[in-house]
Amino acid sequence: MTQNKQNEQQTSNETSEASGDFIIGRHPAVSALKSQQTINKVFIQEGLKADAIHDIVKLAEKRKLIVSQVPKHKLDHLADGQNHQGVVLAIAAFEYADLEDVFKKAAAKDEAPFVLILDSIEDPHNLGSILRTADAAGVHGVIIPKHRAVGLTSTVAKTSAGAIEHVPVVRVTNLVNTVKELKKRGMWIFGTDMNGTDYRRWDATGSVGLVIGNEGKGISPLLKKQVDETLTIPMVGQVQSLNASVAASLLIYQGFSTRHLL
């Protein structure tokens, strides 16, 4: 193989790796290696002799994982500028659930289903935060679209603080059709709108779905037509908008408070 071909192949490999999901940094790497998470490969910066690096290599070897000693510039590339501390793990994509898994989870708890429908959330930090709140408040599942929205990436996993392992996430091709299916199953669908009912009056008992709109555009017009009732969060300050994950948290916990009375 010529030098040019080798360079092209190396660039292709790095691009392929960079498009995947990664766990970055020493402490997150140790936690992942001690868990049951599927890990494809371990990248260690060549020449590092720290005890922490030695421990990571030992954990990887115990799990019979491939450990590659690579130059710092490759880790910089894989970590996309984040502080990797000489360690990057290539991880398998997170598995998505089926809609039936959500209903099974609710049935196992003998509870009416409480589901979030996220309409094109694009920021992985928002999705991770929403998953964290959903887990804390007993939401049975989250539904996201396949297109024009963030999926279950390593950033989402890190922001969720482990909630990604406990909340079923269903990825669907068409949210409108999915909501129609939920309504056929007896679910009442709520969404957000500036002219909606004050969210503090929301009674979320029974089988309910809550639609959270895109960070900038809100709920798409076609999906909003499927909503049975809209809710609004009153604001008296100068900034008349809330971060998507903050708005979702307020609504989720209003749902929680009516479903779990003191």
Automatic annotation (TrEMBL):
Region listing for Disordered, in residue ranges: 1-20
CDD domains named among the record's database cross-references: SpoU-like_RlmB (cd18103)
The name this protein goes by in its record: tRNA rRNA methyltransferase
Molecular-function annotations in GO: RNA binding; RNA methyltransferase activity
Polar residues bias: start-end ranges: 1-18
Pfam families: SpoU_methylase (PF00588), SpoU_sub_bind (PF08032)
GO cellular component labels: cytosol
Record organism: Pediococcus cellicola
Keywords (A to Z) from UniProt: Methyltransferase, Transferase
InterPro entries (alphabetical): Alpha/beta_knot_MTases (IPR029028), Ribosomal_eL30-like_sf (IPR029064), rRNA_MeTrfase_TrmH (IPR004441), SpoU_MeTrfase (IPR001537), SpoU_subst-bd (IPR013123), tRNA_m1G_MTases_N (IPR029026)
Residue span(s) of domain RNA 2-O ribose methyltransferase substrate binding: 22-97
NCBIfam families, per the entry: rRNA_methyl_3 (TIGR00186)
SUPFAM superfamilies per the UniProt record, alphabetical: alpha/beta knot, L30e-like
Gene3D superfamilies: 3.30.1330.30, 3.40.1280.10
Lineage, top ranks: Bacteria, Bacillati, Bacillota, Bacilli, Lactobacillales
Alphabetical GO biological process terms: methylation; RNA processing
Family: Belongs to the class IV-like SAM-binding methyltransferase superfamily. RNA methyltransferase TrmH family.
